[in-house]
Write a structure and sequence with these properties.
Blueprint: H1 3-13, H2 15-41, H3 64-75, H4 78-92, E1 99-100, E2 105-106, E3 111-112, H5 113-118, H6 133-147
Antiparallel strand pairs: 1-2, 2-3
Helix pairs in contact: 3-6, 4-6
Length: 156
């Protein structure tokens, strides 16, 4: 018998070891299920197609603010738009309403409240997640152009 077969046989005779093994397996399965559910709930994030160019939520829809940001977004180079999509997908799965690090960071680009308010073209407000993905993307691209990618050390 191999060492693995010996251990497996011993575990089968020991109910405590069997329960521990089953509990570990169940925990792993639940974590995998939770991760999958979160990915499905986020809608798969921002795609490179039509996704990420507007927002279903936020207080800028149908307002002058939204129009101003839509025009600004349209004026960006494809390179900047691609950066915004890639960075938001990495930071938040592209979800403009997400809260990270216990509520310290908000929105698709995980803005800290102080960074959000002091960023170029920021419409203000307490948190980025009050605005659509497109508004957040415009602010993020403007901030990246001003300060570089250091605000997103992993994803930028």
């Amino acid at each position: 018998m191999t060492e693995f077969e010996n251990q497996t046989t011993d575990n089968a005779r020991n109910p405590r070891a069997l329960r521990k093994g089953l509990a570990t397996g169940a925990t792993v399965a639940l974590l995998a299920l939770g991760t999958a559910a979160a990915a499905i709930a986020s809608g798969g994030g921002v795609g490179t197609g039509g996704g990420g160019n507007g927002g279903n939520g936020g207080n800028d829809n149908g307002s002058r603010t939204g129009d101003r940001f839509a025009q600004e977004w349209d004026s960006f180079r494809q390179k900047d738009k691609k950066w915004a999509r890639k960075t938001s997908e990495c930071e938040s799965g592209g979800d403009p309403n997400v809260h990270g690090s216990g509520g310290l960071y908000h929105g698709a680009f995980q803005f800290h409240a102080d960074t959000w308010r002091s960023s170029p073209m920021s419409p203000g407000g307490k948190h980025a997640d009050n605005y659509s993905w497109k508004v957040q993307a415009v602010v993020a691209v403007k901030l990246m152009k001003r300060d570089g990618k250091g605000h997103w050390p992993v994803c930028g």
